[in-house]
Amino acid sequence: MSKHLVIVESPAKGKTIEKYLGPDYQVLASYGHVRDLVPKEGAVDPEDGFRMKYDIIERSEKQIEAIAKALKKSDDLILATDPDREGEAISWHLHEVLRERGLLENRDVHRVVFHEITKKAIQEAIEHPRALAQPLIDAQQARRALDYLVGFNLSPLLWRKIKRGLSAGRVQSPALRMISERENEIEAFVAREYWTLDALTERQGQGFTARLTHLDGNKLDQFDLNSAELAHDAQKRLTDAASGELRVAKVEKKQRRRNPAAPFTTSTLQQEASRKLGFTASRTMRTAQQLYEGIDLGSGAVGLITYMRTDSVTLAGEAIAEMRGLIEERYGANNVPDSPRQYKTKSKNAQEAHEAIRPTSVRHVPNEIRDRLSSDQARLYDLIWKRTVACQMIHATFDTVAADLVPGETKHQFRATGSTLVDPGFIAVYQEGRDDTQDDDEDKRLPEMAEGDSVKLNEVTADQHFTEPPPRYTEASLVKTLEEYGIGRPSTYASIISTLQSREYVEMDGKRFIPTDTGRIVNSFLTQHFDRYVDYDFTAKLEDELDAISRGEKDWVPVLEAFWGDFRDRVKEKEENVTRAEAVQSRELGPDPQSGRPVSVRLGRFGPIVQIGTKDDEEKPRFAGLLPGQKMDKVTLDEALELFKLPRDLGETPEGEPVMVNIGRFGPYVKYGSKYASLGPDDDVWTIELPRALEVVAEKKKKDAERFIMSFDAEGIQVLNGRYGPYVTDGNKNAKIPKETDPKSLTLEQCQELIAAAPERKGRGRKGATKSTGKTAAKSSSKAEGKTASKTSAKSTAKSTAKSTTTKKTATKKKATASKTGAKKATAKKTPAKKSSTAKSASADDNRLSAEPSGDRGSE
């Protein structure tokens, strides 16, 4: 029997920790949160001090039972979840569940925190336990309540005014605003012409370039030469004045130092991994979590990096000492600065994690452990290791030279600049990436020159340029901007981005974000009617208040009260006063030439559509979906009318099946009878004729015939060839056929047995999202041809005994009020399906409810 029961979030972390503790310790995983707000209206009650009602997450029942069973055999409970407010809340929720079951009587409960999973760190944490930190719990609860209140009130309003399935989040909405406003800037941008003049010169056989900086003694601004006429006139004057050579008027020599970047925080790691490795924020955090929780290097798992959710750039003294020793060994004593570099954290709160992201030991050199890591793990660890080592090395030293060159005795002036890397210092190990800028540290040498020397002028060139709009956001630049504004916290960046993409508010153009029509309409609605709540400063100040709660400087209830009153009133007002037509921002394109009825474009239930006529006409309106790539604010009347020429009837197949072509959600297709076949990339839906369509149909029929093996029509069972081999299906479940079995020999009974033994199909939604919260998710999709498919996942009903109501402390109380089991349920005003989907919206900024912590928890 184990004397001590230790609880962590994930089994991977548990396995690593367990080997550092003796046989008296048993380590179990909670698999993330064990409770969440009930997925219905009333989970947070503003009229009762923001009382919060919780359900045990259904998939957590198994973990709780295992923990409860083990606790009965243990002397005490050690809560060892992550060292941030989210980890504190996980421990608190589990503590409350176990307390309500009477399992903590006569047992001590300890909270331990560590920022790296190494033997020393774990043992030190066990030796220095503390109590649960109520301020951290309050901060997380306040954040969860805010996100719930915004989601459960604003998202249904979007459903009613725009379309179903939309969501608004307290943090995601300002991020969407950033992307949308940048797109507006790009569209409104007017390019300006300007010219630059360069002297192509030569001295001692070495060619170099000098830029014109002064004309007639006046320093040139960017737009002084803004036409070909002005540029070519200046070009001629300079060429004539020079007569083939330039005089060196001045030479300046300086030495420039460049210091290494600070070690990684969560934000800078996500930015750099995006720039250098092409990783998304969620991929970065998922991989970092694996490195943190432990990798088997041959003698058991060991945590390779410190905790990866942090705002801090400070480093432990022991870690710095180890780095300085390694730098001296590998790169020479001359690369070790006289004193250690100390970095100061800008963030006041620093996310409760006391160190930057660094290797737990720089002696774990990337090349020496690469074969123990996956490709992603190796690349990310290499990045972290190099950045950390480089931050404790000496600066890089450059010699810079600037020479002013004058044509003849004029007041015109060119300037040539050069830079030479004298001592690479930290650059020998690592150099930080940059967004949308060129690196100016590459060697660019100039020949030796002195004042009064002559330089041969080969040519004066005149080059035309146009100003460019600001670049669209990449993941790296969006995270950087969010951090600069103080919006979001380390664990939220990845979930903000994934939510914007999953809601189809943004799409990617290469690696850059473009707002979709839906995203722009949602943003426009929010900025027009809820401007305060998507304001950057308001969001940042609210984040600061939540941080103040976590430090114990503020009570949580007054913060929620200050937010809720105005927000509730604004929602009610907009629900009554804003029409759907105003919200969807219909744009009239002109009259239909045939009917004279108005043609407009707007956001419909399944996306952007063109409409001929109005609902008030005698004749029903006609609708057509926009094609991929078409935008609501760009489509013209002619382009809109073309959409109504589809579908095109082409004739019949030899078997008498009608043949038509159209464009659906997944591209152009030909329909024959009740079946479909995708058109090829060279097929034009507007011009294709029957013979080519029949070829496509014949190819599809051939593929289907090759796929079909046999069927039992009465039972709805088929045996088919799939991508991964033959399988049996009844339309609901697919069952793999054993290799040793001939598919053609299967009987009906054998097929039924295989299907019965096959696992249920997994939903396509976010892992754990449905089961975690007992929600019902309903998704409807519709093709342009009118084909509609709906899929509804079964609702998971949480056990009534798992329900608890927790009343948080008021502003004047310092101790949380105990939770009560079996508290009265709040009456739900919406149907379960609607409200459960809205509940999903409510937690759009909180991605910590997955069964296995994935690195992008998102409710920080």
Structure report:
It is built from 23 helices and 34 strands. A hairpin with a 6-residue loop joins strand 14 (396-406) and strand 15 (413-423). Helix 3 crosses helix 5 (134-161), helix 5 (134-161) crosses helix 23 (832-842) and helix 6 crosses helix 15. The chain starts with a strand and ends in an 18-residue tail after the last helix.
Question: Mind sketching the topology for me?
Answer:
Layout: E1 4-8, H1 11-18, E2 25-29, E3 35-37, E4 44-45, E5 51-56, H2 61-72, E6 76-79, H3 85-100, E7 108-111, H4 119-127, H5 134-161, H6 172-188, E8 193-203, E9 206-215, E10 218-219, H7 228-242, E11 245-258, H8 266-277, H9 281-293, E12 295-296, E13 301-302, H10 317-331, H11 366-369, H12 375-390, E14 396-406, E15 413-423, E16 454-466, H13 475-485, H14 493-502, E17 506-509, E18 512-515, H15 517-529, H16 536-550, H17 556-577, H18 580-584, E19 587-591, E20 598-604, E21 607-612, E22 622-625, H19 637-642, E23 648-652, E24 658-664, E25 667-672, E26 675-678, H20 690-707, E27 708-712, E28 717-722, E29 725-729, E30 734-736, H21 748-757, H22 769-773, E31 778-782, E32 788-792, E33 804-806, E34 820-821, H23 832-842
Parallel strand pairs: 1-2, 1-6, 6-7
Antiparallel strand pairs: 3-5, 4-5, 5-33, 8-9, 8-16, 9-10, 9-15, 11-14, 11-16, 12-13, 14-15, 17-18, 19-20, 20-21, 21-22, 23-24, 24-25, 25-26, 27-28, 28-29, 29-30, 31-32, 33-34
